[in-house]
């Protein structure tokens, strides 16, 4: 049995990872930022499938929120074994020349600073030399880090490249601490994120151009995340794992 915190677990990929963890009987901190009812539903489903769960509001881009959400999950569920830095945003499709500074700042605050703050808290709390039990940190990146996402969101793609580089470096910092760090890089996946970026048909449209001819389902990404959290991946660290239907 494990105790984990998943950021952005009220919807999409984070939600699916929480439900899969719940099926294993794990305890899950379900972070969300706005959608309390969706987070409560995830808590209910995890509990009904045999796990324990607590919903925790917080913006990953705000340092105090991140520290408070880690405190809250450990108070409610006990010491952590794993963290999934999953919360992320996209923007509407734009060329870089048309992007506002405000858009880019928010993109990097949530996707980069948010991931780094969560990774720092995980490093502080999981590291054996700091009193932790060791564990696993999974960073949710994107294959956009490989493509660069021209004319759509090069800011987003760059933010995910930073997340991948965090996995490469932090995995080496924490190897001797009993903490594994890996990056999961989903391809296009059927979630609300596309509608939030003004492209509700994007998963279907882009999915049709992939080797599998379809977008991924959040449950398929969750399998990779939960595997990396589990002891089944005990010799895997510093990996960038594409879950992208061959794309
Ligand atoms: P989603 O369906 O839009 O869900 C986003 C989740 O993140 C929600 O739970 C949301 O909470 C939460 N969130 C958003 N901003 C937050 C913040 N500042 N602080 C805390 N939580 C925040 O997204 P998704 O598609 O599942 O994406 C999850 C991750 O996978 C992201 O990092 C994304 O970049 C990555 N990814 C997705 C795809 C894809 O095609 N879907 C492909 C590659 C990578 P509320 O419900 O409260 O709003």
What is the fold's blueprint, element by element?
Elements: E1 3-6, H1 12-23, E2 27-32, H2 36-48, E3 52-57, H3 63-77, E4 82-85, H4 101-126, E5 135-140, H5 144-147, H6 154-174, E6 179-186, H7 193-196, H8 202-207, H9 218-229, E7 240-243
Parallel strand pairs: 1-2, 1-4, 2-3, 4-5, 5-6, 6-7
Helix pairs in contact: 1-2, 1-9, 3-4, 4-6
The structure holds NADP nicotinamide-adenine-dinucleotide phosphate.
NADP nicotinamide-adenine-dinucleotide phosphate binds next to helix 1, strand 2, helix 4 and helix 7.
Summary of the model, kept short:
The protein is built from 9 helices and 7 strands. With 247 residues, it is α/β, with parallel strands linked by helices.
Please characterize this protein's 3D structure.
The chain is α/β, with parallel strands linked by helices and 247 residues long. It has one domain: NAD(P)-binding Rossmann-like Domain (Rossmann fold). 46% of the residues lie in helices and 15% in strands. Helix 2 links the parallel strand 2 and strand 3. Helix 1 packs across helix 9, helix 3 runs parallel beside helix 4 and helix 4 runs parallel beside helix 6. The protein starts with a strand and ends with a strand. The mean pLDDT is 98. The protein binds NADP nicotinamide-adenine-dinucleotide phosphate. NADP nicotinamide-adenine-dinucleotide phosphate (NAP) binds next to helix 1, strand 2, helix 4 and helix 7.
